[in-house]
Amino acid sequence: MPHNSRRSARTSVRKRRFGPLQREVGIIGQGTCYIEEGDPASAITALRRGIDLGMNHIDTAELYGAGAAEELVGRAIADRRDEVFLVSKVLPQNASRLGTKIACERTLTHLKTDWLDCYLLHWRGQYPLEDTFAALEALREEGKILSYGVSNFDVPDLEEALQIAGASMVICDQVLYHLQERAIEHAVLPWCEQHQLAITAYSPFGHRDFPSTQTPGGQVLADIAKVHDATPHQIALAFLTRRPSVFAIPKASSVEHVEENAGASEIILSQAEVARIDAAFPLGPHRRGLPMI
């Protein structure tokens, strides 16, 4: 939702190395889930504005609109491919040895590009990881993808993935992570930091349930936002990306929202502010498995 008071990005979005890669990626990127449901011209303009601001990490998937989101991204990056760290995802039902290659070719066609910077298994499914990773490695050797990773993997899955693929081959885990869903901080986040995997936080504002200023937690965010001449959404992004392994990919369907998201990368929270947010949105018990939406 639009906000009246916000910090605009004065410089390019802050970047850091993405896991074991030598590539510098904006800590705030651009998600595209449901992007095809809005006005295409607005979506393309917003994505291009994000690239202008250094939000070079653009994430999509064959799942989103059955390829329609990928096609929109392809139009947005048509003359700017080299500026973008482009990520897409293969559905688990397509993740056999042959199916992964076919899905990747289809994704590349939708995006009108010759390569992906990173290709992810969207979540674990019926096919053995050995088959999926064999296909991903073949695609990497062919230059159709430059790296690969996983999404929605808990620690046991990550351990198995690394055992199969080898150290430093799986470069990231894309997971649900927002103020009211911090399950990854129990085990997944420390494990990924120990093994030098990047964490990509999807749905960093939750799913249409961002804390209202009428709630105690929302009031904490609003109070801290005033200090930084920022918005509560920007404070949430600053909190989620406070650790050097984490990147966030909020969706933004307007230039105004993109500029707001980009501005969050400049905010450095104090230890006291982090402690206040931590207390307002407690971590909660460690459950088996990871939540997904």
UniProtKB/TrEMBL annotation:
**Residues in the active site?**
64 (proton donor)
> Which positions bind substrate?
122
Q: Point out the annotated site residues (description: Lowers pKa of active site Tyr).
A: 89
Any one Gene Ontology MF annotation carried by this entry is: oxidoreductase activity
Q: List residues of the NADP-dependent oxidoreductase domain.
A: 31-280
Q: Which PANTHER family match?
A: ALDEHYDE REDUCTASE (PTHR43638:SF3), OXIDOREDUCTASE, ALDO/KETO REDUCTASE FAMILY PROTEIN (PTHR43638)
Q: What is this protein called?
A: Oxidoreductase
Its source organism is Rhizobium grahamii
